[in-house]
Each structure stands twice: as C-alpha cells, then as structure tokens.
C-alpha cells in the first residue's frame, strides 16, 4: 500500500489554547506566561500584567504586536506531558497552530527537573497558516511539559487564530452527568448552568446537568432559570430535597448516575460541582477527555484557584498524612501565585505530583468506581471527598489532580469553619475517616491530634467550638449506624447551639461592639510570639493553671481587653487574655471571647475522659466502621434516605 493510500489517523482535540475573557490582569498570568528573570534577552516578551486587553481578540485568539514575543508556557495553555504519558494510552501528541501574519512559532519541552530544550520551530507568513507538530510522549515518566512561544516579525503583527493539542482518537467518548449541589444560591447555580450551555466543546460529552436543590430559595424561581433550561436543550434536571449537605447532594448525583434515566441511558462519569464556583467549560472538557484516555478508570480532579486572587492556585496536589490523619497540599505546592512567577520558572511544577484525593468543588468520578465502592459517606460536609478517594485507592482506583483543569472558589483561608458550627463536622468526620483508613493500630497520632484541637479551643476561649468537638467525640463513639438518621438534623442542631455561647455570636454593627477596657496591664502580643519549643511544657502548665484557677477581672466580663485580628488569634496568645474582640475571616464582624474557668474545668474533665475512652476503643470502633462502610454507602441505604427527604417530584 502506498503512502497516499494509507488511511489517515483521526485526531481528537484534548485541549484548546485559550485566553481569558476578563480584564483581570491576575487571570491573564494563567494563560500567558510571565517573562523570566533569568538574565536572558527577554525585553520584548509580553508580560500578562501589562498586556493591552485589546490584544486578546477572543477566547481562542491573540494578537502579538510587531517585534514582540509571547510564551504560552502557562498553566492553562502548556500541555502536561508527564501526566498524559504516565496515566494514558497516548504516545504522540500533536500541536496544531493556525495563525495570520508573519513571525515564528517555537515549541519547547521540559523534563521533571525543569530542564528545557527547543523541540521545533517554524517560520510563519501569509494571510493564514496552519502548522502541526508531532511530539512524542516517551521521556516524561516523572513529569515535564510541552508548550510553544510566538514571536512577531519586526514589521508586522502576528495573530494566533486558534491552536489545540490533539491525539489519535481511541474511540472512547464517554458522557458525563454534572452534579451541582446548591443551598440558597439560585443565581450562582443558574449562572453556572448557562456557562455549561454556552460551551460548545461540552455538547457531545455532557449528557445531563443535575442540580440538587437543598435550599429554601428555589433554583427554578430564579429569573434566568427558564432561559438556562432552554439553552440546555433538555439536558437540565432539578431535584428538590431536604438539606443533606454536600455529601447528601453529591451522593444524590452519584445515585442518579448509577440509576440512569428512565430510558436506561447512563453516563460514564459523574462530576461534582460546587454551586459557588466559577465554572470553566474547557476544564470540564479536559477532564472528560483525559478520563477517556486513561489506561484504567481513575478519579480526575480539577484544581482550585482563589476567586479573590485569580492568579493564585491553592493546591497543586493534596495528600492525607496517614500518621496525623490530616489533609492538605503537598509540601511546597500550596498558594502558588502565578502573577509573581510563571509556570516555566517554577521548577517544582515540572514534576508529576500524585494526589491522595481532590476536593469536590470539581471532580470527575467514573460510574464504574461508584458501582464498585459505593456512594459518599453520609456525613453532611467535610472529609467526604478525601475519604472517598482513600476508599477508591484501596480498590485500585487512583485520584489524579489534572493540571490545566481548574475552577475558581473562595479559599478555605477566608472561612471560619474551624471555629463555627462546622467545627463539629471537622472533628467527627476526620475521626471517622481515620477509623476507616488509618493503617495504624490506634490511629497513629490521631487521638493526640484530637486532644490538641479540643485543648486549643478551650485555651482560646472558643467554648462553642470546644463543645462541638466534645459532641463529635461522643457521636463517633456511638457508632456508624446513626449517620443517615442525623444527616438532615445535625447541622441545624449545631447552629442552634451557637446562641448559647457569647464567643459564637457575631457582632456586625460598630455601635454594638463593647468598648475596649482593661484594669490590668495587657501585653500587645501577636501571633509571631509563639512559645519556645524547649519551654512549651512548663508554659502550657502555667497557662492551664491560669485558665482553671485564676478568676478573670470583673471589667473583662463587660469589656474586651484587646481587639485581636483573626490572623493573630492563636492558641498561644489568646490564653493570656481574660477577654477579647476577635474578628472573623471575612472581616464582616467580631466575636466577644471571655475566659470562663468553670467552663474550662468542665471541658478539661470531658477532654481527658473522652480521649481515654477513644484510645481504648479504637480497634473495636475501627472494625465497626469498616464493617458498616459498604452498607451505609450503598445505593439501598442512600435510596431510603432520599425517599425520606425528597420534598417533591423532579423538575
């Protein structure tokens, strides 16, 4: 057979080169990489911070002014070759670039150590030019990227009309059910539906978008709902149910994905979506496409950027420390500000980083995984996403946090969820997850971690949070069989307790804040003045003695001794005060903290007794929770819960 008679390989788009449709300069740094401070001749390199917005012609098109150069070695436009080589069946990726004007396109590649080399270059000229580059995926086992730069000729502009990364079509074209859980955010939810509807790249893969409406402000009553419904062309469905939290909302999406439509049609994937994120259609497309090429089913997570600092990635990969049993970013991979330094210059981002879990702000889960390991734990919020990935990993299904697929969301550092009603769920669900998955006989350091949390709340005059922590411990030791029965009531119960504690009440009006007064010398100590590790034990002993036995001053009952910024409200500073006005994370108000020795004595006693019991019962509790896991996460158990809390028929 001659070369002309050989069948051509059908290529499929994996990712589209694109640009922000916002004038936020922070966001531009995710699409156009910053010039590097490496001493090279880069004076003509376009900096996204100073880029004239008029040069962004559309979501796919960019003008490079005469004599200028731009690098697309950026978070959204570079190709994460290491992830594609390691996790998928793709061996060659094709870059296709369509331009007009004159200049040059240069392709670069890097390895896991960020060493880069020029791979190919081509001159561009004429009214329209399409160039393709076939790039092998052979040397990216531990990481590395492909990207390209564009340089305009000295006398003429160069316009990138469009570009994309492609691979041979493997014949797998999975469909996805998008599951958005919402509580009293109808406008945000409907707005995100319209973003999905407007993204043509999603037409073939989104089989259905499911909104699980758990609030009192109905999504269907939003003024733009009918328009969104029309734009989705029959692919939008709303289910109204009681407030079962994130875990109950996403479990409903999993349930509907496994159950399928009335005609028997089922999606291949389910994707979780928060209601208050900024949905990015291209990122959904990339996750679904990547899943189609994976060598085995895998959970495909999307990254989260800070909605208030558009160029800051909150975590590149997240892990669970199995000894402490705490979750968080891999060391060095948190709060990455691309406006300061771009992707090419960040050596640690050229390595492939494997994740233990991905947050459910946006996360794709194959239906096969749900059918095998079950639905979410019935725990309302917190730890449902990380526990699910640990459960999936034990069954042989990895979690991949895919670079280039992301959304924007409020950062967890801008929330008070460690000290408000959510403190209960932080403590209870972390303990449950450790009982289910800790490889250590008595949970490693988990019991000690719990003691520390309880004690810090007490020493910091956070009696509301301490009481919730105590409640969480008691509920954990009551066993797993009551989790479904309290799913809809526990959050309301913890919120109702807030008014019983002065430290749990938020003061928002300036006129309502008590005047700061003190009848004793009060040092100005900030968070930076932490105890010396060598003297921590005697310091802690003296603090406990003061907390338990020393009577607060009479004036501190009605007047705070200090105003304490939220960032300074540390457990090693607050115990020095008899009272304080402490601001919240959002800056909308303050709480009046007042030291109460009687409360401390009661809670210290409970602290010791409960944690001694937890330690003694850990092995038996672990067995109890692990034996119950398949039952409480089953379709049958969740089906009964949904039947009980469904408010009306589906819309």
TrEMBL record:
<comment type="pathway">
    <text>Cell wall biogenesis; cell wall polysaccharide biosynthesis.</text>
</comment>
<keyword id="KW-0808">Transferase</keyword>
<feature type="domain" description="Galactofuranosyltransferase-2 C-terminal">
    <location>
        <begin position="446"/>
        <end position="643"/>
    </location>
</feature>
<dbReference type="Pfam" id="PF17994">
    <property type="entry name" value="Glft2_N"/>
</dbReference>
<comment type="similarity">
    <text>Belongs to the glycosyltransferase 2 family.</text>
</comment>
<protein>
    <submittedName>
        <fullName>Galactofuranosylgalactofuranosylrhamnosyl-N-acetylglucosaminyl-diphospho-decaprenol beta-1,5/1,6-galactofuranosyltransferase</fullName>
    </submittedName>
</protein>
<dbReference type="GO" id="GO:0016757">
    <property type="term" value="F:glycosyltransferase activity"/>
</dbReference>
<dbReference type="Pfam" id="PF13641">
    <property type="entry name" value="Glyco_tranf_2_3"/>
</dbReference>
<dbReference type="InterPro" id="IPR040492">
    <property type="entry name" value="GlfT2_N"/>
</dbReference>
<dbReference type="Pfam" id="PF19320">
    <property type="entry name" value="GlfT2_domain3"/>
</dbReference>
<dbReference type="InterPro" id="IPR029044">
    <property type="entry name" value="Nucleotide-diphossugar_trans"/>
</dbReference>
<dbReference type="InterPro" id="IPR045699">
    <property type="entry name" value="GlfT2_C"/>
</dbReference>
<feature type="domain" description="Galactofuranosyltransferase GlfT2 N-terminal">
    <location>
        <begin position="19"/>
        <end position="168"/>
    </location>
</feature>
<keyword id="KW-0328">Glycosyltransferase</keyword>
